[in-house]
Each structure stands twice: as C-alpha cells, then as structure tokens.
Amino acid sequence: MKGRVFVIGLGLIGGSLALSIKRQHKDCHITGYDINDEQGKLAKMLGVADDIAGSIEEGAKDADLILITTPVQVTERMLELLAELPLKETVLISDAGSTKAEIVKKAQKLTDKGIAFIGGHPMAGSHKSGVSAARELLFENAFYLLTPQQHIEAGKIDLLKQWLKGTKAKFIVISPEEHDYLTGVISHFPHIIAASLVHQAEKTSQEQSLVTRLAAGGFRDITRIASSSPTMWRDILLHNKETLLQLLSAWQLEMEEVAAMLKEQDGEKIYQYFEKAKTFRDELPQKQMGAIPAFYDLFVDVPDYPGVVSEITGYLAKEEISITNIQIRETREDIIGVLVISFQTEYDRLRAKKCIEHYTSFETSTGP
Ligand SMILES: NC(=O)C1=CN([C@@H]2O[C@H](COP(=O)(O)OP(=O)(O)OC[C@H]3O[C@@H](n4cnc5c(N)ncnc54)[C@H](O)[C@@H]3O)[C@@H](O)[C@H]2O)C=CC1
Ligand SMILES: O=C(O)C(=O)Cc1ccc(O)cc1
C-alpha cells in the first residue's frame, strides 16, 4: 500500500508499529513525531521513521493513516487536538492505548466531523520503553483488539487491518467496555499486584538486607511487570478506575477468605484454594500470546567458569538469535549454575535450544 502514515509517540509501541508497517508496505512514507526530541532523532537514525515532523499539525495534514501511540491520557489530548486541525477527509485514525472506553468517547469529536477513528490495542509489549526497544515483529501472533464504533463502515476496519498486516497479529473486534473489563482482569490488575509485592519486599529490605539477594530468582520473575513505565501505568489506572476499584474490592474479599482459612488452620480449604488455581492455570493455552507476554525462558545448566556467559551469547549471536534478557541464578563454586535466557518468541527459544545443544554439551530445558 502507498500513502502517508503519521505516528505520534515514537516509543516501544509506535516504533514497533512503524517498523511492521514499513516491512509490509515498502512504498509508504512514515512521518513520526515525539515530544522528546531525542526519541525522534533516534527513530530517524534507526530507520523507524522516514522523517520527523516539527509539529502535530505538520505531520497530520497530509496523512492517510494517523496512529497515536502515546500514554493514554496524552492520547485523549491528541484526539482533541486532531479534531481541531485540517486533515484529509479520508484519513483513518487509530491508537494503541491499553484502555479504550475513555479514548473512544474522546474520539466522538472526530466522528462528528466525519473522520474515521478505530480504537486499537496490540496486546503484546514489554516492560521496556522507548524507540530503541522497538521490534518489527513485536506483535507477531499476538491479539490485536479493535474497538470500532457501530457506525464505522466495514471497509474502514479492513483498511486498518491492511495497514497493520505486517504486525502478523490476530485481530479481534470487541466493545470498548468489554475491552476495559477484560484487560483490567488479565493485565491492569496484575500490574497493581506486582507493584504491591515489590513494595512489600522493599519495606522488608529496610529491616533485612538479605531479602534483596533472596528475591533475585522467582520473585524477580513474577514481578517483572513492575519494571514497566510508571507514566504509562498511572494513565492506565486513571482511565480504568471503575473496573480496577471493583477488582480491588473482590480481591480484598478473597484475601480475607484466605486469612480466615489460615486462622482456622483449615488445611483442606487451603489445599482446595491452590488446587483450583493450579487446575485453571494449567489449562490456559500455552503456545498463544496473551495480554501479558509469556516468558520464553530457556534454562541452561552451565559449569561455573569465567567466560561461560559470553561463550553462549556468542553462539546465539552467530546464529542471529536475539535475546531479551539474561540472568545467572546464583552459583556456588562447587556446583553447576543456571543461566536463564529470555526470548521474545517461542520460535527464538527453540532455535536457541538447538543452537546451544549443537555447540555445547550443556543441558537445556524450557522449564516446568
Ligand atoms: N508497553 C507496552 O507493553 C504496551 C503499551 N501499550 C500502549 O501503547 C502506548 C505507548 O506505550 P509505549 O510505547 O510502551 O510507551 P513509550 O514510553 O515507549 O512511548 C511513548 C512515547 O510517547 C511520547 N510522548 C509522550 N507525550 C507525548 C506528546 N505530548 N506528544 C508526542 N509524543 C509524546 C514519549 O516521549 C514516548 O516516546 C500507551 O498508550 C500504552 O498504554 C499497548 C500495548 C503494550
Ligand atoms: O510485558 C509486559 O510487561 C506487559 O504487560 C506488556 C503489555 C503492557 C500493556 C499492554 O496494554 C499490553 C501488554
């Protein structure tokens, strides 16, 4: 497809969308804009955008597709601004915000002017921010939720999917309210819990310094999402306030039930609590990406000798397998240590497993 794309907010998501659009539509022209000049410069340098606009007005006026990929409260302001600007009559506007109801409401002003807006949410990402973390295939196989209003012609939805084809995501159309409730349950609320677990550990660490060392493994894994952008998550919480308050009340009640089981030392109930959670969790699809990306971790048993980490990363680099994280689980001199290497996709993890097994005799596993 030819045409001009304007991306407002050249961070992880804006950058990744721009890369995937360019990959699919080589002849399109991508203009970017970011309030942070450094992100703009970096986006141009990394080939994420063909050029950088000096203002929203300049980038928007000739655009065929405008993607707003800023934190959701900024997105609201952008929609208000765009509604005041001269735009092409046929322009299609979408966003990538993690919340939808407030945004779709705000887009009404554009709709009133006959401009098509379709809310969007690619449900993959990372706790990393900024354009340098952008990846062309970040959304491969991920769900991409679209929340068009009823009056939107099907042709416009198809056009947006065409533009976004290079994401290789799976599109699902859903209402903004349903979207906010579901993402509240599986993404927004877990972020609050992750942050609260970290706060609890931090308070303990003031008395007991050992806690930070002990938290290095499993605790760090289950609280990974607490390292996400505070700006982004502040905005998400403020947008999805009602759902989150409802979920917080339900959670508090549930914690009271857990406290009661404990006080009564009701072993059977405690067992049932864990057993029911295990059954539901074990039945969740494993090979599919959900709202919070899976950890594609590979565990490598390595002997503890200097240079072993660079040896392994060297083999991976040789086969051009990108890693997203690497961690050494504490080792003692006399035992074998475990290297935990994280990948963006299951495909990369399997390639890495084969690669390490080919070049070394180290044991690898994909975990429980
Ligand atoms: N990080 C993730 O994993 C996911 C994030 N999202 C949503 O995507 C959106 C963007 O998130 P990220 O790319 O992760 O954040 P990011 O922090 O990497 O990028 C946001 C960019 O917006 C820019 N920005 C902020 N205010 C601006 C303004 N007034 N004008 C122009 N640019 C402005 C920032 O400078 C930054 O470069 C958010 O709405 C978020 O809810 C959706 C799916 C996943
Ligand atoms: O990897 C993480 O930390 C995420 O939770 C990614 C993410 C963040 C926000 C979204 O709206 C969707 C996915």
From TrEMBL:
Residues 3-292 form the Prephenate/arogenate dehydrogenase domain. SUPFAM superfamilies: 6-phosphogluconate dehydrogenase C-terminal domain-like (SSF48179), ACT-like (SSF55021), NAD(P)-binding Rossmann-fold domains (SSF51735). It catalyses: prephenate + NAD(+) = 3-(4-hydroxyphenyl)pyruvate + CO2 + NADH. Residues 297-368 form the ACT domain. The keyword tRNA processing does not apply. Pathway: Amino-acid biosynthesis; L-tyrosine biosynthesis; (4-hydroxyphenyl)pyruvate from prephenate (NAD(+) route): step 1/1. Belongs to the prephenate/arogenate dehydrogenase family. The keyword NAD applies. This is Prephenate dehydrogenase. Its EC number is 1.3.1.12. It is an enzyme of class 1 (oxidoreductase). Keywords: Amino-acid biosynthesis, Aromatic amino acid biosynthesis, NAD, Oxidoreductase, Tyrosine biosynthesis. GO terms for molecular function: prephenate dehydrogenase (NAD+) activity. It comes from Niallia oryzisoli. InterPro entries: 6-PGluconate_DH-like_C_sf, ACT-like_dom_sf, ACT_dom, NAD(P)-bd_dom_sf, PDH_C, PDH_N, Preph/Arog_dehydrog, Prephen_DH.
